[in-house]
Model the fold of this input.
Amino acid sequence: MIAAAFRQLVPLGSIAFNTYREAARSKILYSILFFALFLILFSAVMGEVSLYQNERIIKDIGLFALSTFGALMAVFLGASFVYKEIERKSIYNIVSKPIHRWQYFIGKFFGIVATLLVQLVLMLIALLAVLWLWLGALPWVLLPAFVLICVEVCLVTTIALFFSSFSTPYLSGFLTIGTYVAGRSSYMIQQLASRVESEGLRFLLDLADRLLPALYIFDVSTEVTYNLPIPTTFLLQAAAYGLCYAAILLFLGSVIFSRRDFT
Amino acid sequence: MRSSESTQPPKATPPGGKALPPRSTDRSAIQVDRLSKTFRSGFLRRSIPALTEVSFSVPEGCIFGLVGPNGAGKTTTIKILLGLIKATSGSATLGGQRVPSTRSRARVGYLPENPSFYDHLQAREYLAFVGRLFGMSRRQCASQADRLLDYVGLGEHAGKPIRKFSKGMIQRLGIAQALVHDPHIVILDEPQSGLDPLGRKEVKEMILGLKSRGRTVLFSSHILPDVEDLADEIAFLHRGRFLPFDSPLTKANPKVLQWQLEVSDLPVPLEEILDQPPLRTASQEDRLLLTFDGSLDASTAVARLVAAGACIHKVISHTESLEDLFVREIQAEEGPKT
Done:
């Protein structure tokens, strides 16, 4: 039983490792990482010119860089990696091997997520280094925020992969960015739904609110900036919500991908 | 039209693996039964039939050539066997395992048409990656990758990124990756595409080498003389159907168009020995070159001539080449051009 399960994981792990290797050799990814690191360093300069706001500015800009550039990389990798293989036909030689299509799809997911986590860790180290050098302190309150950013980036990756299982990279990139923006501000949809009078419109807004990922819950920059406590229960619930949402999308994407013809 | 036919003995055998027991002709390595595929295209989901009730069987240890013009359905058939496309109806098995399934693909090596591999990897890394997908250990992958790269002539380029490979090198790498797990069945889609004459010759030798070790090879090709040289059995596909003759065609019994006998010392006039008159008679010094229609029973004719005291110097059969047959069948299918 365990041996059989392990046998299923070997090709999945190989695909994940290969995806990581491909992403790690991508120049575009390094460009995005460079901009993120530059922004984090620039936050120190911004902190210097602000009055008694050094720590707040650095944390604020640093978390913004982690979250936004992390999501941007997730969209880029998630939307392009599977489609690129279909377009170049390199996928023919992979899915014709004795592997299940879901192993390929989920292997891609893990490879992309591993790449993103490495990038996020590098950004976090840069942010902590800037805070240490400028303020002489390490604000560990950043860590829960970092965990939530990781979960959010993971979720954005599955959204991009889900859309790329049936559409082109441009369309899936556009749809993922749209979902990201809508998910980040979906609390406004809730508020709007409670105010509209039309039953039909309220139903549609309610539906959108339920379907869209509530990405705003992963943004705890206010708590971090003002050194407010982040309850562990909230942290666990938010992480569980994000991972469950990601698992459902990954399952649906695998099903759609498994039904595709590679003509 | 061709005068004679010869197959060269295998000069190269792939590394690793063992020779399989002698083939049993009653067992099929590949079995395709009434396979059909209809694609849907456009907003109105217009039907485009790509394959219509295709059936064939490839015995173990046989080299089977799939021939047909562009769009005939060769690649569609192969892709269905490999699980890249789902058949609309019909069924198929590979090594007795139902298609599509991971078990059916486990013993198959596949070279896609115009293969494309991961640009960011080196040739050795790619072969090791493919080996892992077949469940091979890292050590097995590494040793097999080096051996196969030497075998296909890429040993010096093992550490080179694939993006720097020429088309011919990509094709060689494609062949290497198809053999990485020492498959029992090898499916090659246009294996000689993009290769120079030397490369084509090497591929031919490699295919014959696989056969000599009991492997079953199914390949598609546009290069008809090569198919003719290599394949034990040949099937013509045209517009998604097998052409309506004894299909698949076996090379064991090619159609003879003409017979030529070179004889001397005829004791009596030819009409007294043979019932069938020659189409042409030509004299060459003391010999006669007799040309007969393909319907001649050559063995009986030779026996009668020898019994009458004539001396037979040469018996030449002019058989229909694959190209002749291919053109004739397609023209018959499409009807006369106006």
